[in-house]
Amino acid sequence: MRYLTDDLPGTGGRIKEAPSDFCVEEIPLYPPCGQGAHTFFEVRKVGISTFEAMRRVARALGIRPGEVAYAGLKDAQAVTTQVFSVERVRPERVLALELPGIEVQWAKRHRQSLKVGHLHGNRFTIRIRGAGCEALDACRAILDTLSRRGVPNAFGPQRFGMRGNSALLGRAILRHDAGEFVRELVGSPRTGESPAVQEARSCADAGDWEGALRLYPGSMADERGVVLALRNSGGDVARAYAAVPKRLKGFFLSAYQSELFNRVLDQRLERLDQVVTGDLAMKHPWHSIFRVEDEDIEQARAARFEISATGPIFGYKMMRPTGWPGELEAAILAGQDLEPEAFRVGEGLQLRGERRALRFQANDLETWYDEGIMLRFWLAPGCYATALLGEVMKAPTPEEATENVSELTKL
After folding, report:
1. What domains lie within the chain, and their CATH numbers?
2. 205 flagged as catalytic
């Protein structure tokens, strides 16, 4: 993996030895107004995912988990603070909750429900263990570069699933290659999986559907459903492909779009803080897009972080740049033997496409030493802390070092 700061030494080290090594505080988009039928409440939780916290709160309040609204997902293996909302539940009742690992900080009324994306950002406090205090100067040099030039807005490994093959599955969907899709989903054993799962995949590769069903754990319901369809159809991959839920196919397609974006970003890394004539640039923080007609005029705005060049989330209706940026993106798509129309998938999976900034700004960066290198910063929604950590550490983060990554983990 290439880094923007490859010319600077990293700190090395490791993170997440304890939940307190990784703290995430959600920054709300707006405060509750104090009136209305909805109750907003902030919780502090330790080592608990967003969805598990919602389930525990719902059970204690006697409501369904789906009635608990949230603004964004938070890392399970961390100390996190985030806001939820519920309807027709008094703030006093929420404040009285006593749940293991969950502490309600405050509760106030509001006129409407919390919505996904209703957050200003996330503030991170991270300890990198195993890095001596002598690494602090290297860390500061890296953060200075990232402050000036921005952080590469790459999709992190958590985007590509536990086996790191979600993009391959998405490519097979676009190519309408049901055989390759089914082989990659239920066969093709990889190291890092449990012996039973590896054996189940070997059985699937050999056409031993009964053996695969016996060995696949109940928690792998999607894989079991595909193997069951193969068994019942005598190995018909088209019927097995049809058994895959649409939501899972959508995840795989999104992963493939993400991988193609990362390829474009990699080619533009050295010019990350520059715009080029023909670029489709994004205005910060409003995310509106415009075409760069004269790079000499617009470069001053890029240097002030008012605008950034964008890369493709490919789709059949995506805006396309011209000039060199357009040629680069067209070449990457052609290298996959694809045309934009290929993203008109069918099956209710129409990928219109969009633009994504090639960089993001890490705000209020701080670093000091306390039993390791400490980092504090806040990021806008949708930005991956792992991208910044990769630049600092120049070493695999926990998500890269293991193939056991949760598909739901988004820092």
Report:
1. 30-117 (3.30.2350.20), 175-246 (1.10.1510), 268-360 (3.30.2350.20)
2. no
